[in-house]
Design goal:
Pnp Oxidase, Chain A; 5 helices; oxidoreductase activity, acting on the CH-NH group of donors, NAD or NADP as acceptor
Length: 201
């Protein structure tokens, strides 16, 4: 099959892109507004962008309405966020936070999650998450207009929490981590079974 993207409707283009680029890691982002209301939402357009400086990239797509998603609005306002890594035991709770809720809804309470106090930023992390990365906004780049337009948040990592049970021999053990990835539609995946290939020298 071949596709001229100029001839595809937005929904079909979205489905094609997310069906091709997978599995995608999930950034479960916690933020806080100026009133102290916490927001928690997952985003699968996510990866490491740089090591020096340590930058994460999270793209938050525009909704059908012109209003920014609560996560993006809070990041623009406060410049602070926590990226929580979703493991298999947290998949159901993560799915609860996918909904389009009003700005005053606290998804921590909605999903029955505990808050972990952060060291360098105000938003709490998900206490149950095996990894939490405290971040400050480095830059936000916007692309396009209307539904589906991207807002690329470049977030600089300031502090990292790793649960003892996933830290083995000086590194994060991916098998113990059980990180959940996003596939197309409502499907998710794990990083197993995995295989190794030695890099050429």
């Amino acid at each position: 099959m071949e596709f001229n993207v100029q001839q595809l409707e937005r929904t079909n283009l979205y489905q094609l892109l997310v069906g091709c680029i997978l599995p995608r890691p999930i950034a479960w982002v916690s933020t806080q507004d100026m009133k102290g209301v916490c927001n928690l939402a997952p985003f699968s357009f996510f990866n490491v962008m740089s090591v020096t400086p340590p930058l994460l990239g999270i793209s938050i797509l525009k909704q059908a309405s012109e209003r920014d998603k609560d996560t993006l609005a809070n990041i623009r306002l406060t410049g602070e966020l926590v990226v929580n890594i979703v493991n298999l035991p947290l998949a159901e709770a993560m799915n609860v936070t996918c909904g389009a809720y009003a700005p005053d809804v606290d998804e921590f309470e909605l999903a029955g999650l505990a808050r972990a106090t952060s060291v360098t930023v105000k938003p709490p992390g998900v206490a149950e998450a095996p990894v939490r990365l405290e971040c400050m906004l480095h830059q936000c780049l916007s692309f396009g207009h209307g539904s589906g337009a991207g807002n690329l948040v470049l977030a600089e990592v300031k502090y990292i929490h790793v649960a003892d049970e996933v830290w083995r021999d000086g590194a994060v053990d991916d098998l113990a981590l059980q990180a959940v990835g996003k596939l197309g539609g409502d499907r998710y995946s794990l990083a197993e079974p995995a295989f190794s290939l030695a890099r050429p020298v």
